[in-house]
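G., the chain you wanted modeled:
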Amino acid sequence: MLRSEREAASGAAGSPAAGDESSDAASEAEATPEAEPGSIATGKTDAASDADSGSKAEAKATSETDPETQAEADSGSEAEAEAASETDPEDQAGSDPEDQAGSDPEAVAEVGSEPEVADAADAPGSSGEPAPAPDTPRPRRRGWAAWSGRVRERREGWREAHPGAATALSAGVNVLCAALVIGALVMPNTVVALGPAKFVRLPSEGIIAAAVALALPRRPRVVLAAVFGVVLGALTLVNALDMGFKQYLGRSFNAILDWSLLADAESYLEDTLGRTATLAVAVGAVVLVLLIFVLLALATVRLSNLLARHPGRATRGTLIAGVVWITCSSFGVQLAGGVPLAADSTATTLEIKARQVKDTLHDEAEFRKVAKVDAFGNTPPDQLLTSLRGKDVVFTFIESYGRSAVEDPIEAPGVDSTLAVRTQALAKAGFHAKSGWLTSATYGGSSWLGHSTTMSGLWVSNQQRYRTVMASDHLSITKAFQKTGDFDTVGVMPGIQKGWPEQSYYGLDKVYNAFQLGYKGPKFSWSTMPDQYALQQFQDRVHSKKPADGKSRMSFVILTSSHQPWAPIPKMVPWDQLGDGSIFDAIQKAGNKASDVIADTTKSRQEYGKSVQYSVTALTEWLERYGNDDTVLVFLGDHQPIARVSGNHASRDVPISIVAKDPKVLDAIDSWNWTDGLRPAHDAPVWKMSAFRDRFLTAYGSTPHPKTN
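Predicted structure as tokens:
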């Protein structure tokens, strides 16, 4: 049809020369034999030159036609264009010479030898201009495309020059990718579970992923493989965080609540290792996380491509692995150490974390209801703490003072000796003590959770609960003293280095933070000042001064010298030589380096015990030196030290002692059956830390008036 239209157009123009030239070109093109396999280049060249000459002749003829004939030709071209647009897209794609070039070189030669394809006048919407030759060079690529092209060319050249090395390298990368993916799939989430047996298990998730990859077309397969790699990277990060949290805080990482603790971790590292080292650690951690995500995504994509290139063997291998996994799971086949060969740890982790998120959201709503119920919420001021009116009560928390300090074979000998000596020294000064155990709501850190649990009577075990309590009007022990109207309330917080809005909840009229105690000496790692100095400042600024209007006083003191990393540790100096704290310069310089203690578990345990001895000695010497007949000291630990020091199976118990000269103070808690002295017996009563508030308020004359709304 196209050929006849061209002849009609040339005839109407009355140009025999042009028509003969066009006919000769067309017939010559028809006579061109089909390209043979060995003559692709020749066929393309001939076809291109013939097509070019034909296009020129037709263009000349077309330009000489009259308007009517040209209109007919245009209508014919539009009809052909409409017919072409109605063809099957797949047929059109299959007829593209560039599409065919990647699969059948001979087809390219055949297509290139057809004059209709090369003829620009046949193309829909053609302007009659000659089509460019098929071998016209493409525009030069720039930027990333050019760089990647050069890299690809060099890589291909290297492979051709070193086929053996290329094969070995490819196999090695495949093995490395498989090891990386399997390692991520079977990675445990505790330090104690790390071991070779954990990484030679057969992961069910990997078998399922392989089966899915074999069933998908290329593009969905690559996308799904990349997503799978990113998910594996996220799970690897979560497992690593679980390891750290269980090692330090005795619990797993909470994906909703615990991100805010990373800032506290950074502050701790900066105080311990310095700004430069902390920055290096932070940058290294970020780079490592990004590498985990990128490498796992690339590894899963590469493995999926490998499966697609060998579908037969990959299918057989996947079926065999699935049968082995089902068999081992059914019969409980285990490796050395009781590790099951059939693993599904990734699916289990996802299930646990999903349930944790659900439980966290549910717990938040439920705890708000619990916080509104208060046995002493409506107790009138004149019915609170009637037995302690006229007393000077001091509540003191000793950082990380846990049960392991009293009972661990490495830490306990020195601590027990100190407790025995200090009990006798206090007795000579007229003070007596009773001691028991409280189970802390936290472990290894987050001291504020222990403080708020003890004072509020609520189980404040996470950051969300803490925020809920701090925003509530649930009565704390310290605020109960303030509510009576007969006590001034003061806080001494050497660990506070920024704003502390919790002062309102605790009902403290005045708070001295780290910058308000006049300390000019060196920091001892995280601790801003030695406990002895903080206690002397408490004495000078608070305890030695009588409250106005004949009131009594309640003080809330937090001691920090036993905070990890327990290096360097202060030493006791004469109380009258403390001055502004400069006396501690030489002691700090002669002490251990924090980095040395952190790296050695045995040394950490030894130094932890020494730090507790120092804090207990400083506190009890202060009481012996400055206490009077009305002084009542309640001191306790906020939590156990980290698992690396207290052990992976340590309890959450902390010692608590009440010390006073007035025998009536200790007689009021005689029914508690606590142990005489500063060291609680192994079988002394153990209460939840949240139970202390109600017992304390009741023992010292408070009458319950519940609040339920």
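The two ends are 92 Å apart (CA to CA).

Shout if anything looks off.
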